[in-house]
């Protein structure tokens, strides 16, 4: 018998009137599954394109997935979505969080929370005992995100879960983050949206403790397999993420052995320190101090407290340093010790001035792209191949992994989960090429994975642009399912397996877990169909907001002309070439003409109009999205559908 993995309710809170209402989750979930999918549908319905990111009419949407609250399967991630002031032009965006807040929201009785309007004074929302209470947050306004969270927990009980923003959010800085329990932080500029609504925090306290499983026996068998495949995965991450000063700090119910740890500095400060945040200031600080110090940790902690995105800040620091070296900006003209980049003093000054919009911080608060634009062509010329069109660190770009050109071109921001599906696997293959101890992912295994997951062996031959369009499409559909269920990027998809003979994972594992939990038999293809639908919904949103087809589907211009020199994770720039032979992509550019041909192939595979790159009414109807097509017909700027 089928059971529902949803609470069945979406809560809407209007901060302008103080009123709250509930709506059935099923209205969105039947077609768009959960998480990113239902958030995108709510956004489509409620945020017309003319609404600006910091307008009260913008929505701040928090959503969980149908598999959230089922412990051990790495599915208790949650997302925040809304229009972002960090993007130029402003667009729909998304942010993915770990920790416990998402599970608590579901235990409190809601699959999603939609906040709109603007409070007349600093306010926090407290969801408890089936009540949505708006409370005065005047005493918290101006406080750091960590301090706010801990103050609320001290007042309301340590079991409540809090998501908040720091001074950067209050001051509507483009780089502002949201910060939740267990230092789960989310980027994309949504902290500024929260601040614009005078909303300091959302506190949740759930009464429920579990959700039913339709086939418990089958679910436990799958869990055993999952533990075998993923429980022993070694921690990833660098520097201070291991050692006696760290303590494991996992997301709700997770059995993964990832690098999610709390680090305690010598001065007693404690904070999560992993992934990008753990190494973004490392090289610069190491050079400045002549060796390893706690400065990168202290910087990450500082960013959490002020509510500043370390990924966006990394790009800003790079650009500021280049402007300083070119004599465009100085210590005196900015009031920031640019000459001391790498020091704690530099970061304290930069982060504080930007978060509080003090002096030159007012310019920086607009984000790197807009700050450069306001300073003129010389400052803009220092923005080169190290960033994406969304102003984020370039990372896994197409001069190295051709396929990622299509992936990046279709998204409002850097879609790290999609990029990881390819790049993490390639990293493991490079270890095998270099004969590193423990490396297991051979060329044969990569080619077998390409056949099973990416539509064919050509997807793993980077000497050609062929086969990449189908690969991009398959990655997108699967990753949109992942972002909607919502599964953790450290554990899913199960694409390669260390402890098996062929090392090839199971692309149907997600659908098996979903079927066991819900009792609704759902195949891999059916689940991926949800992914295709959600991806098409996001495409429609972006089209309606001005991202028009072929011309808009592009990447950083410098990648077409400036040869690849290095890659921060993979210095040798190796990929499998013809017959799996290692191929070095150093010195290569991303070929513009071949990219256009890839787009032809991609649009045809998607069922879109090849000439314009616009979605078609017939394809949308085929996906059961005729209503979205009708909406696109009336887009501002003319019909956004062929
Ligand atoms: S693997 Fe790590 S980041 Fe992922 S859900 Fe588990 S604890 Fe959280």
Describe this structure in words.
This protein is an alpha+beta fold and 642 residues long. The protein has 3 domains: 9-205, Aldehyde ferredoxin oxidoreductase, N-terminal domain (Aldehyde Ferredoxin Oxidoreductase,  A, domain 1, 4-Layer Sandwich), CATH 3.60.9.10; 309-384, Aldehyde Ferredoxin Oxidoreductase Protein, subunit A, domain 2; 404-611, Aldehyde Ferredoxin Oxidoreductase Protein, subunit A, domain 3 (Orthogonal Bundle). The chain contains 27 helices and 17 strands. Strands 2-1-6-3-4-5 form a 6-stranded mixed sheet. A hairpin with a 2-residue loop joins strand 7 and strand 8 (131-136). The longest helix is centred in the last third of the chain and has 21 residues, at 524-544. The chain is globular. The model is unreliable at 234-240 (pLDDT under 50). The structure holds iron/sulfur cluster.
Q: Tags for this entry?
A:
642 residues, Aldehyde Ferredoxin Oxidoreductase,  A, domain 1, Aldehyde Ferredoxin Oxidoreductase Protein, subunit A, domain 2, Aldehyde Ferredoxin Oxidoreductase Protein, subunit A, domain 3, 3 domains, 41% helix, 12% strand, binds iron/sulfur cluster
Present the secondary structure layout.
Blueprint lengths: L8 E6 L5 E5 L1 H7 L2 H12 L13 E4 L14 E7 L6 E7 L3 H7 L4 E5 L6 E6 L2 E6 L8 H12 L4 E4 L2 H4 L7 E3 L4 E2 L3 H7 L2 E7 L10 H16 L14 E3 L12 E4 L5 E3 L2 H5 L2 H8 L5 H12 L3 H16 L5 H4 L9 H13 L4 H4 L3 H8 L1 H5 L22 H6 L6 H18 L9 H11 L14 H18 L23 H10 L5 H21 L4 H4 L5 H4 L12 E3 L5 E3 L7 H15 L10 H6 L3 H8 L9
Helix pairs in contact: 1-2, 2-20, 2-22, 7-21, 10-13, 20-22, 20-25
Bound molecules: iron/sulfur cluster.
